[in-house]
Predict the structure.
Amino acid sequence: MVRGMDLGLKNRTAVVTGSSRGIGKAIARGLAGEGVKTVVCARDKETLKETAKEIETSTKTQVLPIQTDLQNRREIRSLVKITVESFGGIDILVNNTGGPPSSLFLETSEEDWRDAVDQLLMSVVNCCLEVVPYMQRAGWGRIVNMTSFAAKQPIKSLILSNSIRSGILGLTKSLSNELAEYGILVNAVCPGWTLTGRIVELAKSRAEKTGESYADVVEEWAKSIPLKRLARPEEIANLVVFLTSEKASYVTGTTIQVDGGFIKSLI
């Protein structure tokens, strides 16, 4: 995050889901670096604790780890309750989830579809249902829904992500219209190919199916990007931090890709 610009975030409170590693972790670090009291959550308790300690040490800002299964509404309710008891409210919600397994349409079972809907869409719906009332009472809020460039430009073998993440864009626009009168801004961010564990998994899966090497798969993806490289997680986080800030006070209902120019469409 470029310093020298006061983003007006100090002492705000944020919940960042799926934040023990990868892009979610980078977002949590970026917010904490701006003085935001940050709650990180994920299913892996030990990794989550290590992440919280690492961010807290480097930013000198309080970071609270709460183990949460985002497919369990009761656990989401508990996450929000603990956050409010600890910090007095929730100003910022960043909905970030890992991606479902790669597959083609005829390889994908009904169970796969239902699991992906719960993981990608209903987790966002349920987090918003729990958090929005607090933002309404405060008259201020920021919600950023992390999706994927696949929501705007479908990718082969990602039928679940292509389909369901697009639904999050519809939810984002609808919420932005409904919640604007309460001072709550809602936007979506579509990361492009980013150097995370998820990308490693996808590259290995494709390599196994096609017979290519892992390195060749990653190199092919990089060649398809005008900037000729994959993103770093903090490059995605920089935009998210801005969207949660006072500097983005007239930005709502937007979907912004951070993809090095990969998406070819005008809109």
In short: Residues 44 and 177 are 35 Å apart (CA to CA). The chain has two domains: 13-194+231-258, 195-230. The radius of gyration is 18 Å.
